[in-house]
Every structure is written in structure tokens, then in C-alpha cells.
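Consider a concrete sample entry:
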Amino acid sequence: MSMTVTGQLADFALSITCDDLPPSTVLASKLLMLDTIGCAIGALATEEGRAVCAIAQSSGGEGSATVLGTRLKVPMQTAAWANGRLGNILDMDECYKVQGHHAQASLGAALALAESGGRDGKSLLSAFTMGFETGVRLGNFLSPRVTIDENGRTKGWTGLVGPGQGVLAACTATARLAGLSREALADAYGNCAQYMVGRDWSRQWGRDENLGTMKYADTGWNAQGGMMAAWHAREGVRGISDIFDSDSYAQVFQGVILDRDAMLRGMGSEWYLPETSIKFWPCCRWIHYALTAFSDVVRKNGLRPEDIERVDLRSFPMIPYPRFALQSGPPNLVAATFSFAHAAAMVALDVPAGPAWFTKDNLSGDIANAMRERITLSVDERGYDPDTWGLDEGVLRVPSSALIYAGGRQFEAFSDFALGDSWAGAPDFDETDITAKFRRLTRAGASASDKCEDMIDQVIHAVLNIDQLEDVRDLTHLLQTLAPSAERGTIFPANA
């Protein structure tokens, strides 16, 4: 079995521990874990996040796993779903080369299992890390890194990639903590195909002007689905054990590109975590490039909202899609996360990046609407040249710019990288920035007090030293302390 592509991936997924990883990869994994937890807790301050808590609470019965940022203890399958779902609600979670998101699925499954089993922090970190790394490799297998075709349109990305990566990541994390053999994990990878969104999920998503309030596939389902794929294999339920050696994905899913060499390339020597982008703003990653240029101009020139007369954001060739051009009154959180105008308006109005972007006033209020109406969108012509994207250099550039008219003057800035990108030439974004983001997001859903600030400090310390933790339940207990006090009448944030 070990000679097959599927077997090689399974062997890699189970054989590597934190002790085998370069220090830079271990640190990147800890920071991504912290960031993912912060994204989940921040989501509790949204209607969608509160719905997750209500659903988890209605699952019935006391469980062994915690819903992040709350005092809810639920069955571990429910916790995996809830935390995986919460991690993606704000669209503020990681992004590897704009392939998709899957850290929340890996952490959702790993944390639920590690807490339920009283495992140590090193086991959790290893499971989360290898879940993420195998998730990226599935992305490389299904859809090589984004490229530009002869007409300047993006290609090499399918709707399956993000949801598919999440299921595989959660499956790998579960397999490690559940003690699966290589043979069983190969079966589990075959089972994963049964939990992925078939065909092209974007066809199920509705029209651009009528986006629902659940983005893509349910990322909580990815966490729970990957967990169930592994559990089934442990109980002897077999999947297609050579799933990555066959053409099964090409038969079931439209538009995938099966690249087995890309899946296995550099296995054991190349690590994707240090190359992963951390989002600063709660919006689609494609927006971040032009937004980086816009934010830089506003900040450096001290532009006030009332000074800004007109803004032209210019970016990648996909932007003619209506979902990106939405201006007046985004109907919901999801629509807002895809609107260039909404993101720029929130930056211009100095709204803290996080759940505050999606309050009623900021979605449909007069002030926000007036600012969005001043923002237009067009294509940055540089993006039509594939050489500008830096793919041969192992990076991803998205040539973007911002032209601003304010106070009778004209300002212009260019940005090929986005804030949070990890490559040379990108704006500085380090551990300090990631911990500051975590503080901002956890404050959004917690009771403000000196004690809360102390608890946030303790959580940050615990996660950044997770490999020294003897019992993961010490971390989840700390996280419960960030929940609002019981006298507010609920066991999870009711309003934030």
C-alpha cells in the first residue's frame, strides 16, 4: 500500500510529529491555531454565530467538548461542527495561496477529540499541523495554484478545493488522535469523498445578488465529516483505499485537475504553514490586495471619511462578478464579505476589523451607504500579464491599486501583496499583529474587565506554548473563562 499515492500521503500524515518539524513551522502552526480560535470566538458576536450556539445547545445532553468562547459542553461531534463553523463565519480565517480555508476544520476535529480524551498539547498541535498540511496537498492535487489564462481570467481553482481540503484536514487530525493505522487512514481518505460537496457548490449558492447567509459549504460539516470518515474507517467501514491513485474525483467533481506529483512534491521537506496568509480584515481574500493599498493611503495621509470624495479600487480580472461590485446595503454578512465597497467603507470609517463590520448600521445605515456609494471597482491591467503573479517564484501576487480623491487632492497606491501575506515584499505582519487580532476578536464576544484581559493573556500564553501543556482541558477551561458571566442570563453570548 505504501507505494500508492494514497498510501504515501497516509504514511506522511501519521509519521510526522512536532519534533520533526522546523521551528518556523511549529511557530506558524501555533499562531494559526491562536488565530483560528480568535476567529471562532469573534463570530459569537454575529447572528450567525449565535445560531451555531443555539443549534449546539439543542443537540441535547452534557458532553465532553467545549464550544469555543462559551460554557457549552456538548458531544465531541457537535463541538467539532460548532467550532469548525464558527471559525469561518467572519471570513477572517487563514488562506493558503487563495486555495480556500481549512484550519477551522482541522482544529474543530482535533480540539474536540483532544479535549474529550484528555490528550496533551503536543498531540493536539501535531494533529492540527498535519491536518492543515495534508489539506493543502489535497488542494494541490485537485487544483494547482491559481494561474491566469490567455484572456487574463483566473483558472486552477474549483469550488471543491476549500470544502474538500477541510474534510481531508479534519480526517487526518482525527486519525492521528484516534490511533488509526496507515491502512485505515487510506480507507478514511476514501470515505472523505462521501462528505465533500459534489459538483460545483457555487451553482448551489444562488445568484450574485441573492447570496445566502452560509458561505460555501458548511465548514463545520467539513470538520464533522472528516471526523466521521475516520471513525468509519476505524470501525472497518472501507472507502476507496486508492482514492488519489484513481480517477474517482474527476468522475464525481467537475473541473478538478488531478496532479499527483503536486500532492507528493516536497513531502517531509516542504511545509505550507509558514507560507500561509493570515487575514487582517473580515472579507474575501481577493479583496485584501486592493484594500491593503487603500488602507495604506488612508492611514499615511490621515484621511477622514468626510474628506473622501471618490475611490477607484483596481484589482484582479475576476472582479466583474456582481458579488464583488455590490455597493448599497449588503443584505447580510456573506454579501458584505464579498463587497469591495463595503470593505473599503469600513476601513474609511475606521470600524474595527471584526464583527462590528456586520452590525445593522454598518450593513444598511445611511453613513455606511453613503461611503460605499463613493467607491467604484475596475480591473488593474497589470493582472492580465501572468508573469506579474509571481507563480514561478513560489508566491502569489495579485496586482492591485487604489486611486483616491480627497480634499481636492489625488492619492494613489499600489499593492501586489496583501496585509498578512508571508512572503518577502509583503507588508510587515508578525506575531505581534496576530496576537493583537486575537485580542480584538475575543474582546468582541467577552465581558470587558481587567480579569478578562488577564484571561486573554493566559490563553495566548497557553496556545503559544501548547506543546508544553500536559492536558488540553487546561486550555479549554481557560477559553471558557472568556464567556460572558452567568448573570447575563445565558451560557453563551446573547448580544456581544
Observations:
- Residues 121-142 form the longest helix (22 residues).
